[in-house]
User: Fold this.
Amino acid sequence: MKPLANTLLCLALSLPGGAALADAGVVAARAGTPTAQIVRTNERIDKLLKSKKGADDPAAKAEIRAIAGGLLDYDELARRALSRHWDELKPAQRVDFSKTLRQMIEKNYEKKLKSTDVDYKITYRDETVKGDEAVVPTSVKVKTKGKSTDTSVDYRMKKAEGGWAVYDIVTDEVSMVKTYREQFDKIITQESFDALLKKMRKRIQEIEDGDAKKTTPAH
Assistant:
C-alpha cells in the first residue's frame, strides 16, 4: 500500500513554516460556505505547524487526528473508494473497512508532522455549489531554496451535519478517491477483501513500528 501523498492535509504537513491563511475579507464574505470550512481547517494546520510540535508529540498527534476528523467524511470516502465492492460487503465489514481506512489515513498524517523551512501560500478560488455537493478550488504556491512552484488542490465536498465535509481531494488533477479505488479494486479482484484489510493493517503497523524505533533510546 503506497503512503498517502495526494491529499491537501499531507501536502500542508509537508510544508511547515509557511502561511496558509486567507485574506480576512474573503473569509468574512464566505462565512458558512464550503470555502470557509477549508479556510478554518488550514488555519488550524498552520497553527499546529507553527507550534513546532513534532511527530512524537502526543498532543500534536491528537490535534492532527481532530483536524482530519473535522475535514474528512471517512464513511463517504470509504464508500466511493471501494465503489462496486461496497455493495458486496456486509454492514459489519463496511464499518470495519471505514475504521481501518481512517486509522491508516491518520497514521500517515501523523507521520507527516515534521519541520522544514518551506514557505507556501494558499489562494482560494471561486467555489461551485450544486445541491448538496461543492468544489472548492485552490492553488498552492510553494517557495523552497529560491524556487517557486504552483500546485492546484481542489476539495470535493458534501453537506454534513453542522457544515461541509471533504470526500475527495484532487491534487494536480490526481484524485485521492480514484487513486484509492484503483489500488483497492486491484487487490480485491486479484486476492480478496480480507487481503486488502490485511495489507492496510500491515501499513498501519509499519508506521507504528517506525515511530517506536525513533522514540526508543539506543543501548
Summary: The chain has eight helices and six strands. The longest helix spans residues 193-215.
